[in-house]
Amino acid sequence: MKDLFFQDFSPMLLSEAFNPFTSKSYLYEMKYDGIRALLFVSSKSFKIMSRNHQDMTLLFPELKEIQSLVSDKVIFDGEIVSFKEHKPSFLELQKRLHIKKSPRIMEMANTHPVVFVCFDILYEKKSLVKKSLIDRKKTLNKYKNTSFFFKASIFDDGIKLFQKVKKLELEGIVAKKKDSLYEINERTSDWIKIKNLQREEFYILGYSYHENTPFVSLYLGEERENTFYFVGKVSVSKKKILSVLKKMPKRKKSCFQDFRDQSVIYLSPKYRSLIEFLEKSSNGKLRHPVFLNLVDFD
């Protein structure tokens, strides 16, 4: 069998739950709002791979300092994270993702450095994936925290941790079975993410769809100082909502202050929908919106 250190594989993925819980069979970690990555590190080599097999080594040159921590071949699993005001910020991290030119990358590495938050180790001289999570954590603990590498903290009460995360307005928590093996290329119920989601009502100010697709896109807006602004769109099943949308009063022109699209069927600002989302970006757009239900519709 080919040595794991030289294989191209995806990291173990998580299932999802909606309510936090506490169990002696699990340990709990904060969920950092970053980019999942595997670090392949040795004294002679360093490579950063995304969960989708993209080589990101050149994007984050500051993380190469992690190479000084190892004396042999190691694979770390974790998140690349940017911090703003001492809190993880995916919006801050996005500033780093679209830069392609080396001088600018190096400049941003100095002015907006990232951190690798490590929560697992899959390899140290040999594969560790058949060892339990607790045993892998013991191996990981041998590596010291630095300014660019630190180990995720472990908690034993998932409910209390989730309450803390909500208070701090962080992304959520992860529950992991203590005896779980590392399942490469798999999504497993041994690791469970519980997101700290927000809910808010937004106006449905337009929709669009294609006959050969099962979904309708709703165009959402919010009112600020008597003006409607576009906050994003969300997909909903045609069967669930199209007949209802067709009953809503139409408009010839968009009532969005900042959005126009000829393919959209525009609606009067009369009806709203309840949307669940992770956060709003700095320009007011919703991240990961999910439609829950209609509001104010007879």
Briefly say what this structure is.
With 298 residues, the chain is of the alpha+beta class.
Q: Which stretches of 5+ consecutive residues score pLDDT under 50? A: none
Distance N terminus to C terminus? 63 Å
Give average pLDDT, whole number. Answer: 93
- Into which percent range does the helicity of residues fall? 10-25%
Number of helices: 5
Indicate the proportion of strand residues: 35-45%
- Quickly name the level 1 CATH class of the largest domain: Alpha Beta
What's the CATH H-level homologous superfamily of the largest domain?
A: DNA ligase/mRNA capping enzyme
Radius of gyration of CA atoms, rounded to a whole number = 22 Å
- Please provide the count of β strands: 20
Order of helices and strands: EEEEEEEHHEHEHEEEEEHEEEEEE
Structural class of the secondary structure composition?
A: alpha+beta
